[in-house]
Amino acid sequence: MDIDERWVRERITALRMKKGVSEYRMSYDLGHSRGYVQNISSGRSLPPMGEFLEICRYLDVTPQAFFDVEAEDPVQLQEACALLRRLEGEDLSLAVALLRRLADGR
User: Fold this and answer.
1) Would you call 16 exposed, middle or buried from its count of C-beta atoms within 10 A (0-12, 13-18, 19+)?
2) 37 DSSP assignment
3) Contact 21, 41 (CB under 8 A)
4) What is the mean pLDDT of residues 61-82?
5) What's 29's DSSP letter?
6) Which 8-state DSSP code applies to residue 34?
7) Which of 24, 62, 29 shows the shortest CA–CA distance to 40?
8) Taking the model in full, what pTM does it have?
């Protein structure tokens, strides 16, 4: 899958909707005018890098997770990875075994 401006706009929209906030609310929360996010969603503008990072923080996703094209729900995937990083030894092994079992559909 190619990542282009359209993909970025659609990803922002999908993550915003998953978070359950309106374009207006997100614009307001980010400190912008009412139509800021709508302008991004419609393709009239794209955020500069600094604002993109603020959008990622607002959506509770790292830039790395934002651009993970295989992740349907990068927020939950990011949370799962953070929890796995806290495990050690046998607990980590058990978690990995459970994930393998779930992924295999058994």
Assistant:
1) buried
2) H
3) no
4) 84
5) H
6) T
7) 24
8) 0.73
Q: Which domain holds residue 72?
A: 5-104
- pLDDT for the residue 71: 76
Q: What is the CATH number of the domain that holds 9?
A: 1.10.260.40
- Asked if 56 and 66 count as a contact pair (C-beta separation under 8 A), the reply is yes
pLDDT of residue 25: 95
Instruction: Provide the pLDDT for residue 9.
Output: 92
Per residue in 7-40, pLDDT (tens digit) is 999 999 999 999 999 999 999 999 999 999 999 9
Cα gap 13→91, rounded to integer Å: 37
Answer for the pair 53, 61: CB distance below 8 angstroms, yes or no.
no
The alpha carbon dihedral of 12, 24, 21, 49 has a sign of positive
Domain tally, the chain: 1
